[in-house]
Amino acid sequence: MTDLSISRAADLIAQANALVIAAGAGMGVDSGLPDFRGDSGFWRAYPALGASGLRFTEVASPETFRRDPALAWGFYGHRLALYRRTVPHDGFAILRRWAAAMAGGAFVYTSNVDGQFQRAGVDPAQIHECHGAIGRLQCSRPCSLATWSADGLVPDIDEAACRWRGPLPTCPHCGALARPAILMFGDSAWIEREFEAQAERLEDWLAGVRHPVVVELGAGTHIPSVRHFGQRVVTRHGGRLVRINPRESAVALSDDVGLPMGALAGLRAIDALLPGRSG
């Protein structure tokens, strides 16, 4: 059944004139990034937080920046450094090649904050980061709607304790604590203006495409933002869905395809069946 499904997925991609790349946390696993699946997965990635019994939803919270900013920045600073040194896996290049062959082009919708699509050479103007980006900073108050680049920030982390060492990042406008421009749990202070602009560009692009194929990668049901978006594209724009997920690959419609595979393995398997696009 999987071979037939791979063949069907290749047909959907070959016949489409536009590509929607919908990526969740599982997209980064093949690059060596953790996906924080459940508390146990989070604690394997951050043993110090596991020893303290702190859950991902507790640490990834504006409250932690208020209560223990060195811990909050220890976690996010470590992630920032990790994402900077991570090399995107070959699946990103496969998607770029598919996109280049589409008459209508492509757009990325991702819940990942890691900037890996940009690092892989995807045009930032063709990316919507629905949960924000770790490469952008904002005021924790916030004092304004401004965000700024984290490029000049050099994390200094005590990894054994998951704590930031030295002076904490501050807002250049008011001097208050800075934080990543990421949508956290229980977050009412996220500055989403530039990410709303990304969403507007995506909607403008979608308005001009017909019958796109949505390639959904590593997007689960626990935080269903990516899945909901992909389904909306299928419903409103006459699209089809190729869902690649090793654990949650089921699809609701018979014309769609679900592949119980990791992102890289699934992309490679489909790519091998696309005439003139493999290699």
Automatic annotation (TrEMBL):
Cytoplasm as UniProt keyword: no
Q: Which PROSITE patterns match?
A: SIRTUIN (PS50305)
Q: Which SUPFAM superfamilies match?
A: DHS-like NAD/FAD-binding domain
Looking at the record, the residues that make up the Deacetylase sirtuin-type domain are: 1-279
Pfam families, A to Z:
SIR2 (PF02146)
GO molecular function, a single term: histone deacetylase activity, NAD-dependent
Q: What is its EC number?
A: 2.3.1.286
Sorted alphabetically, the keyword list is: NAD, Transferase
Q: What class of enzyme is it?
A: transferase
Protein's name according to its UniProt entry: protein acetyllysine N-acetyltransferase
